[in-house]
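hey m, so remember when u said the tokens were messed up on ur end? i reran from scratch. heres the input so u can diff it against urs
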Amino acid sequence: MSMKSAADVWEKIKTMMEGDMTAVSIETWFGDVEAVALEETRLVLCVPTEFKRNIIKTRFLPTLEKNLLELFSFEVGVSLLLPEERVKYQSGTAAQKTDSPYQSYTFDRFVVGSTNKFAFTAAEKVADEPGGAYNPLFIYGQSGLGKTHLLHAIANRVRENHPDCRILYIKSEDFVNELITNLRRGVDMQEFRNKYRTVDLFLMDDVQFIAGKDSSEEELFHTFNTLYEQNRQIVFTSDRPPQEMLRLEQRLKTRFEQGLPADIQPPDYETRMAILKNKSLERGIALPDPVLSYVAENITANVRQIEGVVNKIMAFQELMGAQVDVENTIRAVRDILRAKEDFLPSADTIIQEVARFYELDSDALRGQSQNKEITTARNVAMYIIREMTQLSLAEIGQQFGGRHHSTVLNSINRVEKNMKEQPELTEIIRDITNAVNSAY
């Protein structure tokens, strides 16, 4: 985005809107609207009056956003400032609030311990010498351990040292969706390819979602080759190493493996203590040692959960005026642990995620179609519902048009048998289960 100025983008958008509204309307409502700034995913405009801002918000915002999506191929929001707000924004008092949430993801704020030191050191090396020895860098580990933090730390360091460097960060799921949208529209793919193949630093988060999606794998393969041949730095993150991505094309797996793989494991006790101290001090509270010890002993899964506990303790303080003592903290931690245990996903959520994975309609899964692909997806949905919820076979049958409990049991048994014969199916179910866990 940095290659275009805000004014250029605004002029282009006004031209594009001629397909949606008359030239007179455009001049009336947008003639005196000025472009202020173009951020990572937001166009900031200045509108002369409150009246005009309200009209634009209520009548024209979808049109603006639609044309921005068409121009950039990813979603760009719009902020409408009044002149006095513009002054504040440009003087920097509002700039803090409008910064990308990833500005704070720096190497300085990443707590290093024995379980993540290798990945941290490799990421720092890549940020200081992009396109050097570690290309691609492939960081893998479970959710919530800091992979995304390291990706953005690389981007922030490179941006600081090389302001003119073209940096592109994308989640693999967004890459897939953008590709599908372009293919369905039948638009010229050259613009899509230029967007990804002309950058200096290419960062892709959660690359495991690419596996098994043929067109996306093909595009990523050629993107990788183009960038690699030009000595551009590539960094991937994933929840598993390349050799465990069973549905991934061999040629892409080879590319992932040719660089440096670096894993992140869940933090050990000392690292959890350090993270807790860090997170609480960032939020302006000093937790007593017994509290730190209790949390560090009981929250072992990941960094994100530790952050959740600190937020919960703060909420106790702010809402109830409660002091940070061991008793209150124990209550907060227990609530968080219990909430995760007690709250099970709904059958609806699981059916939606299965349908999304197989690119089918949820109603088709619930219906009577015997189409092979729909039947496979339906069986997988039944299996995951049985694994992740407490619904009986009869209740699962009700979710699928009143099927008999014996039919449901047959479907589940078929999935279990196929999983033994097809390791790829086990991986598919793992991916859908992760998506369900993220969705609820």
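this time it looks ok to me. Strands lie at 34-38, 42-46, 77-81, 137-140, 167-171, 201-205, 233-238, 260-263. if urs says something different then somethings off w ur setup not the seq
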